[in-house]
Amino acid sequence: MTEIATYPDLNGASVFITGGGSGIGASLTEGFLRQGAKVAFVQRSDATPFADEMEAKTGNRPLALICDITDTERLRACIAEAASAHGPITVLVNNAANDQRHKTLDVDEAFWDWSQSINVKAYFFGCQAVIEGMQDAGGGSIINMSSISYMMGNSGYPAYTTANGGITAMTRSLAREFGGDRIRVNALAPGWVLTDKQLELWASPEDLDAHMEKMCLKEHLKPEDIVGGVLFLASKVSRAMTGQTMVIDGGVVTTG
User: Which DSSP state fits 148?
Assistant: First the structure.
């Protein structure tokens, strides 16, 4: 991992990450561990080997829990277990998502419900599950991972882009509702991050070249490129920032 800034207030913080054992999530887990945070994460599969690797690399072992985030009761139970182990969760990163490609005319109700349950429903109930602990702790930071896909008007995964738009709308509403409790809620919208999954399934040379043409910075994104922004939003350094969407995409879309 490239050098990242150190945020002293994250040392000892109780952090919960969904999908924290692979892709962008794995880099986020490592980033928080290197800050000295107490990290718990959920993954659908057993992530013990990854936890072993992180402990060897950082000297700080994450709590790895098995969870299908579409199972709301299991997600709540994992959040409660993490809070019991590490103290009230003061940083939540809703990261897990599924951007499976699909065409509008092929979508049936079952696929739609499956996509929304992963990509936005689990985010809402993850937020709901940490709110009371953050209130008791005097505040906290929630980071909801969205995507620039809906900002670009991309085709090829309409259920996914719909969820992305919902995430940013939900972020604004929760920021307004819980700002009085010193709970900050922000979204982070990455560009096309070349995880192993993306490279294996969808990153054809032609599509990579076409995307590069849209980028101001002519270098494709790696998972570790997202870490700094998430740490900033988690830290009290960004204490006056809430209800916002931060974009990290190499300059594909412009905001403001």
Answer: T
> Residues 35, 90: contact at Cβ < 8 Å?
no
Type of residue found at 205: P
Contacts with 73 (C-beta within 8 Å, 6 or more apart), sequence order: none
Q: Would you call 150 a catalytic residue per the annotation?
A: no
Model confidence, pTM: 0.95
What is the SS3 assignment for 89?
A: coil
Q: How far apart are CA 70 and CA 114, in angstroms?
A: 8
User: According to the CATH classification, is domain 8-247 in 3.40.50.720?
Assistant: yes
| Residues 142-186: tens digit of each pLDDT | 999 999 999 988 889 999 999 999 999 999 999 999 999 999 999
- DSSP 3-state of 63: strand
**62: exposed, middle or buried (C-beta count within 10 Å: 0-12, 13-18, 19+)?**
buried
Give the DSSP letter of residue 85. H
Site of tokens 């709590």: 63
Supply 187's token pair.
């979204």
Q: Which of 123, 150, 157, 160 is catalytic?
A: 160
